[in-house]
Amino acid sequence: MAEFQEISKLSALHPKPAGLVLQYGTSGFRTNAKQLDHIMFRMGLLATVRSKKTKATIGVMVTASHNPEEDNGVKLVDPMGEMVTQDWEEHATQLANADQEDLLTALKNIIEKEAINMSQEANVFVGKDTRSSSASLSQAVLDGVSALGGHSKDYGLVTTPQLHYMVCCQNTQGKYGEATVEGYYTKFCQAFIQLTKNTSNRTDDQKHLCLDGANGIGALKVREMESHLKKELQISLNNDGSKGRLNHQCGADYVKVQQKPPTGAHRINPGERCCSFDGDADRIVYYYTDSEGTFHLLDGDKMATLISTFLKELLTQAGLDLKIAVVQTAYANGSSTHYLENTMKVLVRCTKTGVKHLHHVAQEFDVGVYFEANGHGTVLFSKAAEEKIQQLAEDTNVNDERKKAALLLRNTINVINQTVGDAISDMLLIEAILAIKGMTIQQWDTIYTDLPNRQLKVKVADRRVIDTTDAERRAVTPAGLQEAIDNLVKKYRQARSFVRPSGTEDVVRVYAEADTQESADALAHEVSLAVYRLAGGVGDEPKPLH
Ligand code: G16
Q: Which of 331, 360, 504 should be mutated for ligand 1, with most atoms under 8 A from CB?
């Protein structure tokens, strides 16, 4: 076939470094940008084949999200805007790791296995973040698409969730919205304005939000969006990319893991409502400092709690019997799970890390609220649930309370990006809920009190020696590690700890929580030492935190 000759020729321009092996991780390939040119070309090929298979538009986003500036990565987006399926992750790994001379064979194997009709048209949407390496890497994706004769549309600089949205809009013939950045702002900002329009006692203070843009794409896009908000939300933008480095001592991951405000932000006034995006604006965390200067973090768990409480109340007021559930990961603070299950009486499910896992579980419910503690999440409404809400909102024979609740639910659906966790859409949703409930960030914070916790990273020679089970809450290998963790946990009150290999960085992650910060820190350090000793730690032994 003519296109295969073209691939041979063009792939030589994107050669694979000999011996380099990369795995499709938590949300795609991710490593130092210098090692990724061949991966991008090959993911262009794969996305084209996937498009032919699904007879739909596929998305490819060039980003390494929360990683440092020098890294880059790629996320593949399936037709409804969700992450690519697991069997295609395996195809991606095979194609990525095929030696240069075996690339065509690897590609043909996928085409054969998936029974692809190569005469089918293919469409691929491509987006990129603000990293300096993203321009040439996204060009490599476009080269891969054209090598197989596919059509591509280059959206240039967009947030990851914006690209997910575009793909979904395109494949649903505009039913989800218009597949343009303008269409995105119009859809979500209009819903926000509708939601907040009857909260007339909202003061200017309540309309003001301080945002840390992580010096990334989210900052650029919030600037672009601002006029659509018609001053109903006034954003003081810090870390807008004009001077600081991407994700450097700022952004959602830094704030969550370090449990402190970002640098580069203006001096935060006591009680001021603040939030941070991550590098590709698919995560958000909120925070404030109190009058004593103590920092308070409101992470994905607190957002899931606020959102699910709000939705549950509205469903009750609307008289709709719809099943709502919250999906979390092992990182969810024990207090949040306890509150959701015992006070709110909401069904809680736990999955492995990675929004792709949470998304699929959330799809099993009428209303599935899913959030990782790191601030990555959204809400999914089943088609049946959306229809019931829509019918009630249009019904002229229902009482005012039910009608009002149905209208609020309908606008809430419209402010949510259901394709994937989206910092911009989540921010608008949280801001709307706080406005409707007349709630301050302090009041939101007191819904429950987090157990003190600590996250650490340990460098090992090969993080794949750690295998886990039970939604990553227990380590199966290396031998003796889980036993060591169990014995350490027993020393502390209300304690819990687990370890897992990261799917985005070359480290092992350690999580610990306990009744005091000192205990959580000590436990995290002791578990880190166990990982270092039993899983082949490299470099210096982890040092105590205090
Ligand atoms: C990605 C995933 C998230 C995950 C995070 C960290 O986020 O989309 O679901 O929680 O990586 O994963 P890990 O602990 O495996 O490194 P992002 O925002 O970096 O794309």
A: 504
